[in-house]
Amino acid sequence: MRPSGRKIDQMREVSIETGVTRHAEGSCLIRMGDTHVLCTATIDERVPQFLKNSGLGWVTAEYGMLPRATHTRMRREAKNGQSGRTQEIQRLIGRSLRAGVDRVALGERQITVDCDVIQADGGTRCAAITGGWVALKLAVNQLMKAGIVISDPLVDPVAAISCGIYAGQEILDLDYPEDSEAGVDGNFIMTAGKLVEVQMSAEGATFSRGQMDNLLDLAGAGITALNRVQLDAVK
Q: What reaction does this enzyme carry out catalytically (predicted)?
């Protein structure tokens, strides 16, 4: 029995509210159970120096957690004093979102996706990627509506879900009590039917090829469900 009472293949309740900030070109608040992340997308007509005059666009991301997103207060992180965890997560978000972007169609501009964790209960990076794509899509929609971008540069939705082995069972969408006790913990980032990145580790026990296949199947079903929520949000 999972601590939450969920079935092994049951996700937490997911909702995405769009247009939650006034100034960002794209914004949403994603809730995956008790993990809540505010995602905003900002369009900049400049690109990093290494892409200047290349004709290619760029998508990057920043990630942070509010001081009381967790059980105890954390100190705020200055950009030049970010923890290794924060830097790793925001690079992951950027890589993941770029996997679903036609950078030629985007044109020589940059979109920055900011993901701020308001409340954490496991799976914050997965929620950030899933909500980050929605914010990115809303920003791109503005470019297309204005005629600045002709064809949609977002090829496929990108979403992420956690899976792991808890109490000897493969389970989908770990919350904090499961994540902190899982023998195996993994994050699966996918476009529609294709893998972008898999982060897996044996936290307390090794795992077999068969268990890995089961986790992939769980993740695939979870990503499909998340894609439906994402596409409904950006209609």
A: tRNA(n+1) + phosphate = tRNA(n) + a ribonucleoside 5'-diphosphate
β-strand partners of 228? none
For the chain, domain boundaries:
14-234
Was 76 annotated as part of a binding site?
no
Contact in structure between 51 and 60 (CB atoms under 8 Å): no
Q: Evaluate whether 188 touches 213 at the Cβ level (below 8 Å).
A: no
CA distances, 176 to each of 38, 103, 225 (Å): 19, 36, 21
Neighbouring C-beta atoms of residue 95, cutoff 10 Å: 16
Opening angle at CA 162, ends 160 and 164, nearest 5? 155
Per the CATH hierarchy, to which homologous superfamily does domain 14-234 belong?
GHMP Kinase, N-terminal domain (3.30.230.70)
The tokens for 68 are 């009381």
Q: Which pair of tokens denotes residue 235?
A: 């209609």
pTM here?
0.96
Residue 125 in marked binding region: yes
Q: Which residue has the tokens 């997308």?
A: 41
Q: How many of the other CB atoms lie within 10 Å of CB of 79?
A: 9
Q: Taking each helix axis from N to C terminus, what angle separates 209-233 and 124-145, rounded to the nearest 10 degrees?
A: 40
pLDDT in single tens digits along all 235 residues of the chain: 899 999 999 999 999 999 999 999 999 999 999 999 999 999 999 999 999 999 999 999 999 999 999 999 999 998 778 999 999 999 999 999 999 999 999 999 999 999 999 999 999 999 999 999 999 999 999 999 999 999 999 989 999 999 999 999 999 999 999 999 999 999 999 998 899 999 999 988 899 999 999 999 999 999 999 999 999 999 9
